[in-house]
Amino acid sequence: MDEKLAAGWVRRWDVQQERYIADREERFDVLIDVVEHVCRDIAEPLVLDLGCGPGSLSTRLARRLPHARVVGVDTDPFLLALARASRPDDANIEYVQADLAGDGWLTWRTIDAAVSTTALHWLKPDRLADVYRRLADVLREGGALVNGDHFYDEQPGIRDLAEAVKGRRAARAGVEANEDWKGWWAAVAADPALRAEFTADELSGVSTGYGNRLSPQEHTRLLREAGFAEVAPVWQFGDDFVLTALR
């Protein structure tokens, strides 16, 4: 895949993602801060990026932690093609196609950290619990899972308030009119350059169409049951959290 073509679509992906979280770069920074801290004494840490998409977080991780080995895992072939084509030449990043909702995605015996951003909410609760258990088994002591995603408060009034605050922030940031997720995929499917290289199915977007809408409390319960020792949000804006679980 052409590098410039891929880079353009990744930039467009990042812009449409900002429609949903105007503080996306800050969330990335906080997430990577956590990884940097828990891996501060590891010479060559192994970090998994779960549901990596086109590699936006993986690239930032590799830029901040050039001594780390970053492995991005995703099930979507087109997004992985974008990630591979736009990967910086000097970045120690590997991309693997695997389905987190299946059984064969975790092949590493020990990892130092796992990250995810706006991806794990697509997993049904039983599959998410399985992912958490598998990660707890392979994370070294002191390692962390860091998940930046949309979480929903169990209290309806607080949930509505969080959504309103988030909407006001998006309005102030001027991102309300940004292209949405469906619009991005529709544009991908209509691009002649991409249609010449990928099948219609590959350009349709792989999604379960399922948002689990779990609260931070439910995530915390699942993580503790999986074997994580400590769980807490380290950043929040509206219904967006960076939830950290320490092994």
Automatic annotation (TrEMBL):
GO biological process: methylation
Protein name listed in UniProt: Methyltransferase
Domain Methyltransferase: start-end pairs: 47-143
A Pfam family per the record: Methyltransf_25
Organism: Amycolatopsis azurea DSM 43854
Superkingdom field: Bacteria
UniProt keyword annotation of Methyltransferase present: yes
Residue spans crossing the bilayer: none
CDD domains linked: AdoMet_MTases
A molecular-function term among this protein's GO annotations: methyltransferase activity
Sorted UniProt keywords: Methyltransferase, Transferase
